[in-house]
Protein 1
Amino acid sequence: MTLRLVLGDQLHIGHPWFTRPSPDVTFLMMEVRQETDYARHHIQKIAAFFAAMRAFAATLEEQGHRVRYLRLDDADNRQDIPANLSSIAAEAGADRIEYMLPDEYRLDHQLREFAESTSLPCGAVDSGHFLTERKDVENMFAGKTQYLMERFYRDMRRKHDVLMENGEPAGGRWNYDRENRKRWNGEVEAPGGTDLRTDVTDIASMLRHSGVDTMGNIDANALAWPVTRGQALQRLAQFIEHALPHFGTWQDAMSTGSPFLFHSLLSFALNVKLLHPMEVIRAAEDSWRNDPARYGLPQVEGFIRQILGWREYMRGIYWAHMPEYAEMNALGHDRALPAFFWTAETGMSCMRHTISQSLEHAYAHHIQRLMVTGNFALLAGIDPDEVDSWYLGIYIDAIEWVEITNTRGMSQYADGGIVGSKPYVSSANYINRMSDYCGGCRYDRKKRHGDDACPFNSLYWHFLERHRDRFSGNPRMAQMYRVFDRMDAEERRATLQQAETWLAQLEAL
Ligand SMILES: Cc1cc2nc3c(=O)[nH]c(=O)nc-3n(C[C@H](O)[C@H](O)[C@H](O)COP(=O)(O)OP(=O)(O)OC[C@H]3O[C@@H](n4cnc5c(N)ncnc54)[C@H](O)[C@@H]3O)c2cc1C
Ligand code: SF4
């Protein structure tokens, strides 16, 4: 009998493993403290994982597969993946163990060590989920210090024939960023969150009884994330119908009036493999082909770029640079993450809104993660380890391969520029241009210094100044150094002094 391990983010019903039930195969799925405790997770994240795993196990059983499912509070649960594999293999009389290749280095390493140490023959198969192999990005950019997403993305468009016409990009352009990225003023109503509601009270109370340390809020009667393939497909259809027609236009907008705006909320379903990336891409492309008047190319291309481009590219960066990537701290940042990241109790309106919606929904969209919380952490010189563990815990979709590359790489520039050619930093100007946050803030977005000056402003110039040696020669940043150098000397001094004051009292901001 073969024992096949299915991890919590491997719920891909289209995988060849699940084509036909066999009496010689038992699937093993497990909820373990090893996974609930490696970071302090949002309670919705753990509940969604376990609910999705339980539903997947039930589907397999309905299809006639043999399944051994270990709940977190089962007496015979050893709370550790290799220990459970050994004990269940012995209990079931298995003569072979197989697993799908994990997406995380940590688990990949652990399972490889297990395979080498166990007396049973072990085999690993691909999860069949991604559109690239682990090492494709590394091979494509071999010998280069910087990787270019745009080049990778164009290759992917050609290779998978996505939004292509006669070998050329549909509409004659690869990129519609110029048309996209507007501030949202409510001119089109935002569709809001999902209308999915799953009762996870049993899981929430099990987590409480077991003493699992979580963060954030949950309405356990009504979890709003897709936890079955049916729900994931329903969510995809809703997104395509109501939000995709406007996705690109407002993809970078932020608003106190809508935490979700026109985003898909599909990252959890994609990351646990309830949806295949290509089916999401094709669904978006087909809507444009069938109804180009309703689904403009800039909207659809903007969305497809995120999945066919960024998602696959980040995975490639991960496998090219782990495990060193997790240690990188190119800017030498070492401050502690302020406590308001866990409570949202801060006078900075942009930070308060972004953090409180993250605690409420386990969700913030890309620009909130990058240009509000990430921007602040980078300007304030927070230790990337602390930033990583916050992002890894709080978001519903946070799995290391995609969290760390976005956080340590894109957001914190801790990889020294592998992902981004310049750091994503901004003053209040950008936040005000893309949101309505500044209007309701106790700080003044126009001021650089003074008790009510927006902290982003002085911290921005302080960041540039303290990293002058590294960035002043960067053609994409030279202009900002010229702006600073042209400022009145007293203004420069007062701005840098103000930043020092804020840095000494980050907790009080
Ligand atoms: C600091 C930081 C941390 C992040 N951590 C994660 C994370 O842990 N897990 C995660 O899935 N995404 C992460 N992202 C990327 C992105 O913010 C989320 O994928 C997105 O916000 C999820 O919401 P959505 O499904 O509504 O996305 P949409 O805006 O609707 O985008 C559609 C899909 O594109 C993919 N996507 C979009 N941007 C990216 C990106 N930069 N990298 C990879 N995939 C992308 C996602 O699968 C997403 O579901 C992070 C971004 C930043 C800046
Ligand atoms: S004024 Fe500054 S702190 Fe306040 S919302 Fe705007 S950018 Fe954020």
Protein 2
Amino acid sequence: MDLNPVLSQDTNYQIELFENKLSLYQKQDKHHVFVDFNSKQLNFRSQAHINAELVNKAVLGKKKQATTIMDCTAGFGKDSYLMSLTGSQIIAYESNPLMYALLKDGLNRANIDTISLRKKDALKEVKNTDCEVIYIDPMYPTNKKSAKNNKHMMFLQAFVGHQAEMAEQLFTQALLSKAKKIVIKRPVKAAYVLAKKPTSQIVGKAARFDIYAK
Ligand SMILES: C[S@@+](CC[C@H](N)C(=O)[O-])C[C@H]1O[C@@H](n2cnc3c(N)ncnc32)[C@H](O)[C@@H]1O
């Protein structure tokens, strides 16, 4: 896969193999961005109460029964990973080639087989999914200060950016599917996508999950 056209979007970054991990080196801040499912933060979260993770409360509901989930916006795979630890099977989509390459490398290194990653535009696939739940976490604008404190977010802003219409488009297609539930992650104070009031909500400090039961 030729990643050079994507890399040239921001010359501050260069691709490197860092401690055997496919990573992007940010020259200015001298840091590496890579996917690490063994990070302290994820280990802590995954070993605590996995069903208490807000994303899992949202996708599994009260029954807490494992299910099949289409993650339309895989990104760094954190949400996919947390959802997969409930025993659910995840089909994750990532359309950005650089993001896909980093995530694929992370999944291979961690030997995770409950997440099936596809390098495709979820918009084209979501209507026909066989999964019971559709999960959408689109990019949204962040203020510069919070992006600067989060290296992964800085990277996403540089290479993916804010995709203004994506939430609406994915949601519109998801509503046409046979899935029983759609969950959309939103900034806490954001308006509802398509101005559609959710069936229920889970609100955290940093994000909100709007749940649409069909
Ligand atoms: C906010 S990030 C998701 C973060 C992710 N939930 C996590 O836990 O790391 C959004 C990601 O979705 C991807 N994306 C956006 N629209 C997409 C689409 N239509 N199909 C596939 N991937 C998409 C972007 O490239 C970006 O990597």
